[in-house]
Amino acid sequence: MPRLLLINPNTSDSVSALIRAEAERSASPGTEVEVLTAPFGVAYIETRFEALIGAYAAAQLAAEHHERFDAVIVAAFGDPGLAGLREVLPCPVTGLTEAALASACLLGQRFSIVAISQRIRAWYLETVQSCGLASRLASIRGLDEPLADIGKVQDDQGERLLRMAERCVDEDGADVIVLAGAPLAGLARSLRGRLPVPSVDGVSSAVRHAETLAALRPGKATRGSFAPPPVKPHRGLPPAIARLLDARR
Which of 39, 74, 89, 230 has its CA 20 to 30 A from that of 9? Predict the structure, then answer.
């Protein structure tokens, strides 16, 4: 059975606990799940610059630990660093956004994203556009007040998130609700039967898609846009990242 590495590019241990719990509930019997938390960065990513920091933290953890796993998951909505990791890692890589959107596209024509903040919406929109799915996006709605505890968003804001999702259906025409972000891991499961349309979760979607990719053994690109980076001089990099870049020498 596959071994999956989920990397939380945020520094919140409480969010990593939510990721781990939902990943273990979603995984097939025998699948091994490990969650690692970024050693540096911000508590939760909302902006492009914070995503840049998170991407580097994810790259460092992936470089250090990928050899023990059959697939890697970037466990933050927005998938910071996903495309770059797909270039350099020998195993399949997916992220919460692309996995959740893939699930949503199998369940309906138009989807809405329910997010934890207003500021995060611009970055999420750009992520949807990069996936080529902007035409299927009904809306992105987000909470409009500061978060007291990122690990307790579901407890503190669960009913507001539910009402927001209902508005996505009634006012925006969503066929599917994507509950976005690692802090909302497992919320789709707890809201099952309370929403008038299907809802999907990034963590559970990513785990299931990663299991499938590991089982398919699709191989690694050696040419094209996702071929490994060309060999070139470098300096000042963490040893694990340097080894990954030098792997083709």
Answer: 230
